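Summary of Year 1 activities. Much of the first year was spent building the evaluation harness for sequence design. The harness presents a backbone, in tokenized form, and records the residue chosen at every position. We chose the following record to illustrate the format because it has been used consistently in internal testing since the harness was completed.
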């Protein structure tokens, strides 16, 4: 996720409800009656509740009517969010509102409209209001969206200073070694779930690079399960329901959080007492201070380390998996990426270095194009706390204001042949240089991603190593469709065929 892929949560909520209903159980009845009751409450609130005060003469954005109260457009959106938004763009223009699960959403599509969100102040379009109840139980108190944004900005600065070039130089060989070891079990040839493999590998590489060897060396099956339980906290249920409810997944999340925190705090204390001042993220955080001179507490360091890992986990593993399928689909492109390595690194392909990695321009463009067509974060979201004016409309407070990188990055108005995977489109500078927010896989403005450079290093090193080991093919020409039911849009049935590359 980026720090937060969570925003996707509500988007397929009804898809989930529908799935359960299809099961025809007692739970289905319960869900139907809950939905009915909520619809009544919702209609009542609409009828008698207070209305947001808008300036005189202000015009609301076009509203997409739905005859279904409360759930609104959740079904259509849950089934195919991109199609829903693209159709709405055609019909209503770049700014429109609709209801889903009792919440009002206003989308800002295209670069000009998106500028409102990216240039806004956090007091006006607020991130904590939409993300906090999901992130705090997972990361813990005192970090990210649990603190006022100026404090989080200070924390992001500390993280940024730990993600520096000296660190990246170390990371390349760590990631290359982890990747070679991981793929030893794949043997000469076969068919495997690429997304699953890359998810497992990326926990190992990210933990090693971002947490340090002490924590990486404790990463066994049990700890991997703790990460999975923590990650289970980013669910549709967690988005909709209060976090104190005694649901099994919430309990697992809370227990995992406590156990992870204990594990991290032990490693932090050990490092504090050690003579060894390894230059890594943990050391950076131990030595960082806020503007007022205070150091981070052990709990804050643990929370930031957990957050860093989870922020990069799904985002990088889905991007890497989609990249694999794009390369398997175009064997000539795959071969050219391999040949680029021989040209840049040398015919005998010595161990990778940071400087060589920077010169792998074709691979770089392939990642860039993958992030355009399959950005892991489909929607970036804020809560309107004050009336917001855009394109002649005023968005009332209480609306969830959204920008979709996926839609912006394939708008016909901004991109030529938008659905083609064409890494060479970046050869002529930035194809959308006039439109600042046409390409935003890492967001923009005050909430912009701090992990972009690390993500590129990680994905490039992993794929450079994989291309040295294997050739990849689609199985019977199957290119995965997009699974919209997960919060990050993962590839459906992501099985790939591989065979060891002959030198
Ligand atoms: C392909 C990989 C990644 C993608 C596509 C991605 C995408 C994003 C996006 C879109 C945002 C903006 C969210 C918003 O405005 O609401 C974001 C924020 C962030 N990301 Fe990433 N991310 C990636 C990897 C990482 C990694 C590896 C890390 C950590 C090492 C990281 C840490 C963060 C942090 C700390 C924020 C700041 C959130 C804020 O200020 O509200 N991300 N990311």
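For this record, the design step produced the sequence shown next.
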């Amino acid at each position: 996720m980026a720090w937060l892929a969570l925003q996707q949560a509500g988007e397929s909520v009804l898809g989930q409800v529908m799935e359960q209903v299809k099961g025809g159980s007692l739970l289905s009845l319960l869900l139907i009656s809950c939905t009915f009751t909520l619809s009544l409450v919702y209609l009542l609130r609409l009828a008698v509740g207070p209305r947001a005060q808008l300036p005189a003469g202000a015009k609301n954005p076009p509203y997409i009517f739905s005859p279904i109260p409360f759930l609104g457009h959740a079904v259509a959106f849950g089934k195919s969010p991109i199609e829903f938004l693209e159709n709405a763009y055609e019909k209503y223009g770049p700014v429109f509102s609709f209801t889903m699960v009792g919440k009002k959403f206003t989308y800002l599509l295209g670069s000009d409209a998106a500028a409102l969100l990216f240039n806004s102040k956090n007091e006006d379009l607020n991130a904590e209001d939409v993300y906090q109840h999901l992130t705090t139980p997972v990361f813990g108190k005192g970090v990210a969206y649990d603190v006022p944004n100026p404090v989080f900005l200070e924390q992001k600065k500390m993280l940024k200073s730990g993600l520096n070039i000296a660190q990246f130089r170390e990371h390349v060989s760590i990631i290359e070694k982890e990747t070679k070891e991981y793929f030893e079990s794949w043997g000469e040839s076969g068919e495997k779930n690429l997304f699953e493999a890359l998810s497992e590998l990326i926990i190992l590489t990210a933990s090693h690079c971002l947490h340090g060897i002490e924590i990486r060396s404790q990463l066994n099956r049990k700890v991997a399960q703790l990460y999975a339980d923590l990650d289970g906290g980013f669910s549709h249920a967690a988005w909709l329901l209060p976090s104190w409810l005694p649901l099994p997944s919430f309990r697992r999340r809370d227990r995992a959080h406590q156990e992870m925190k204990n594990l991290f705090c032990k490693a932090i204390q050990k490092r504090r007492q050690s003579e060894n001042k390894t230059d890594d993220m943990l050391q950076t955080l131990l030595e960082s201070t806020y503007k007022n001179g205070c150091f981070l507490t052990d709990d804050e360091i643990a929370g930031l380390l957990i957050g860093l890992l989870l922020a990069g986990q799904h985002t990088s593993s889905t991007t890497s998996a989609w990249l694999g399928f794009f390369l398997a689909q175009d064997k000539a492109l795959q071969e050219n990426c391999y040949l680029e390595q021989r040209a840049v690194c040398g015919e005998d392909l010595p161990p990778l270095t940071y400087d060589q990695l920077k010169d792998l321009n074709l691979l770089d463009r392939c990642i860039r194009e993958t992030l355009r067509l399959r950005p892991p974060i489909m929607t970036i979201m804020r809560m309107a706390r004050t009336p917001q004016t855009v394109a002649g409309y005023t968005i009332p407070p209480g609306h969830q204001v959204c920008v979709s990188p996926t839609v912006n990055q394939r708008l016909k108005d901004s991109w030529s042949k938008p659905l083609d995977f064409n890494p060479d489109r970046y050869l002529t500078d930035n194809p959308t240089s006039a439109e600042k927010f046409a390409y935003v896989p890492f967001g923009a403005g005050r909430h912009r991603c701090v992990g972009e450079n690390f993500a590129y290093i990680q994905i490039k090193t992993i794929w450079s190593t994989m291309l040295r080991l294997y050739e990849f093919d689609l199985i019977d020409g199957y290119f995965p469709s997009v699974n919209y039911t997960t919060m990050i849009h993962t590839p459906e049935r992501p099985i790939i065929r591989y065979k060891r590359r002959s030198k």
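The chain is about 50% helix and 10% strand. Quantitative recovery figures across the full test set are reported in Table 2.
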